[in-house]
Design brief:
Distance between the termini of chain A: 61 Å
Radius of gyration of chain B: 25 Å
Largest sheet of chain B: none
Helix content of chain A: over 70%
CATH topology of the largest domain in chain B: MetI-like fold
Order of helices and strands of chain B: HHHHHHHHHHHHHHH
CATH architecture of the largest domain in chain B: Orthogonal Bundle
Oligomer: heterodimer
Number of strands of chain B: 0
Structural class of chain B: mainly alpha
Number of strands of chain A: 0
Order of helices and strands of chain A: HHHHHHHHHHHH
Low-confidence stretches of chain B: 1-10
Low-confidence stretches of chain A: none
Radius of gyration of chain A: 27 Å
CATH superfamily of the largest domain in chain A: MetI-like
Helix content of chain B: over 70%
Distance between the termini of chain B: 48 Å
CATH architecture of the largest domain in chain A: Orthogonal Bundle
CATH superfamily of the largest domain in chain B: MetI-like
CATH class of the largest domain in chain A: Mainly Alpha
Largest interface: A-B, 93 and 93 residues
Mean pLDDT of chain A: 89
Shape of chain B: globular
Number of domains of chain B: 2
């Protein structure tokens, strides 16, 4: 009798606990479901839809059901028959390598300078960071005017030093380097701040101990700063690579892809293919290929990050 | 004494070099802003003058007067403010709700659903741009605030950031509130949100900067001038680009877009920097 009462007491306890757990679980679903429904509608479904469109021919005006199936024709066309796709791919890689390489070196250099005991640190930090928060479109309009070969400030200043006028954004060989320069100018402050945070996270006693052992500045940098900063470095490279591969605002405002497609980038070309020429099949094909490039690069870089840690 | 004497000159040398590099760098960073503001008050003759004239002879407001006739400036500002504010609020609300759900509740399928959220972080916007545009057009949201705002109010990154932060909130506090009979939503609103202000601030700043500067999506969705945001409207000035007469107008437009942001940034600099350090290192 006594035991059965105890058992039934225990079961009610378990039952109420389970009911409470169920209520907790329901609350959990309630908290996450609005966001999940959104992600389903505006990210996951569109992602699958992009894959679907890329194996069809579609101009966005005809009903979805009537799209003619094209298999891998869009991909085949882009890879084998479209010189402009190859060109924009090359341009995008050029832009990314130039921007990432130089930004990382310059931002790290600046962060090291700002991490040393200097006066007016907030002023320097603000000066280098300010371009990052300004609208890329607005600041690109300013740069377009500064770099204009005929009436731009840049050639005006060069003339004062006796340097002949440069074509900058309208020069076949200078257009992309000019665009990279603007991108570096705009992004360097952001990466500098991240490097600064990384540098400040390195414990000062490591340096003190090494100094006691008679290590010089270069040894300190090589054997303490570089290894401990590696995660930050990889983070900066990953983020900058992802952003650079998707560059759109700069070619749109600075050059419209010119001269002769020298600064035409993948996302800019994709935008024109989709919204000027209404070739959604080809545009989504480009999107899928660039996505695969980005995915592979991210996975490689994250793997590297994990190995080093 | 001797050692100090030997180190001092080297340090002075390195110090001067440091400052020289910083000064040159800062000039390169600030000069475009200076020229933007200065030339927005100039005549086109002054802008084209050689040798370069650095300051206008007289503060002319011609460009600022001509600008509202070329583009709907007030409307662009209003649109940008509405779109940025509502999008940022949407991101904060959706991210904090979902982040809290993933951080502090156990339910079947939770880890798989969170993986799904992480997966959406790997999908850049350009990949889904065409289908999202198609959806928006089916909703008849082209050229509307809904079209500009709704697709952007949930981000995988925001949910991830909130969840990481909220994992560290003490369970005892939440349980104590439950014992006191608070509902789950009250706990979220009265306890979790106030305890999460640092991460809400960081995500809020990022969301505001991102939306204020966002260009590609508004360029596609805002078809008519009355729905233009600031970047889209500024780009329409480019139509005059070959004409040297409108440089001062382009510079005035850029200045009106940039200067308010710079002022806000200078006032809130500390929060920007700590926000970026926080989100950067967690990402």
């Amino acid at each position: 009798m006594g035991t059965s009462a105890a058992t039934s007491g225990a079961t009610t306890l378990v039952r109420t606990r389970r009911r409470r757990l169920n209520r907790r679980a329901l609350a959990g679903y309630a908290f996450v479901s609005p966001a999940l429904v959104f992600l389903l509608v505006f990210a996951l479904f569109p992602f699958l839809f992009t894959l679907w469109v890329s194996i069809h021919d579609w101009n966005m005006l005809t009903p979805i059901g009537t799209m003619p199936f094209r298999g891998l024709d869009n991909y085949r066309y882009l890879l084998n028959e479209d010189p402009l796709f190859r060109q924009t791919f090359k341009n995008t890689v050029y832009f990314t390598v130039g921007n990432v390489g130089l930004s990382v070196i310059l931002a790290l250099g600046l962060a090291l300078l700002l991490n040393s005991p200097i006066k007016l640190r907030p002023f320097w930090r603000a000066a280098f960071f300010a371009p990052y928060i300004t609208a890329p479109v607005a600041i690109a309009i300013v740069w377009r005017n500064i770099l204009d070969p005929d009436y731009g400030l840049a050639n005006g200043v060069l003339a004062q030093f006796g340097v002949p006028a440069q074509p900058f954004l309208s020069g076949l060989n200078q257009a992309m380097p000019s665009m990279i320069a603007v991108a570096i100018w705009q992004g360097i402050g952001y990466y500098m701040i991240i490097f600064l945070a990384g540098l400040q996270a390195i414990p000062a006693d490591l340096y003190d101990a090494a100094k006691l052992d008679g290590a010089g500045a270069w040894t300190l940098f090589r054997s303490i700063t570089v290894p401990l900063l590696r995660p930050t470095m990889l983070f900066v490279i990953v983020i900058n690579t992802l952003n650079s591969l998707q560059v759109f605002d700069l070619p749109y405002v600075l050059t419209q892809g010119g001269p002769v497609n020298q600064t035409n980038t993948l996302v800019f070309y994709m935008f024109n293919t989709a919204f000027k020429f209404l070739r959604m099949g080809r545009a989504t094909g480009m999107a899928v290929m660039l996505f695969l490039v980005i995915l592979v690069m991210t996975l490689i870089q994250l793997r590297l990050l994990r190995e080093k840690e | 004494m001797n050692a100090r004497g030997r180190i001092a000159p080297a340090r002075v040398g390195r110090g001067t070099l440091t400052y020289a590099v910083l000064v040159i760098g800062a000039i390169i960073m600030i000069l475009p802003f200076f020229w933007m503001i200065s030339s927005s008050f100039m005549t086109s003759q002054e802008i084209l003058a050689r040798p370069v004239v650095w300051l206008p002879a007289k503060l002319r407001l011609d460009a600022y007067r001509a600008l509202p006739e070329a583009i709907p400036l007030g409307r662009m500002y209003l649109n940008s403010v509405i779109v940025t504010t509502l999008t940022a609020l949407g991101i904060l609300l959706s991210s904090s709700l979902a982040g809290y759900g993933f951080a502090k509740f156990e339910f079947p399928g939770r880890d798989m659903l969170f993986l799904l959220v992480l997966a959406t972080m790997m999908i850049p916007f350009f990949v889904v741009m065409i289908p999202v545009f198609y959806l928006i057009s089916k909703f008849h949201w082209i050229n509307s605030y809904q079209g500009l705002i709704v697709p952007n109010i949930v981000t995988g990154f925001g949910i991830f950031l909130m969840r990481q932060y909220m994992l560290s909130l003490p369970d005892e506090v939440l349980d104590a509130a439950r014992v006191d009979g608070a509902s789950e939503f009250q706990i979220y609103w009265r306890i979790v949100i106030p305890l999460s202000t640092p991460v809400i601030g960081a995500l809020g700043i990022l969301a505001v900067v991102y939306q204020w500067n966002n260009f590609l999506w508004p360029l596609i969705v805002a078809r008519d001038a009355n729905m233009w945001t600031i970047p889209v409207g500024l780009v329409s000035l480019q139509a005059y680009a070959s004409n040297a007469d409108v440089i001062n107008m382009q510079m005035a437009g850029a200045a009106l877009a940039i200067v308010p942001v710079i002022i806000v940034f200078l006032l809130l600099q500390r929060f920007f920097v700590s926000g970026i350090a926080l989100t950067g290192m967690k990402g």
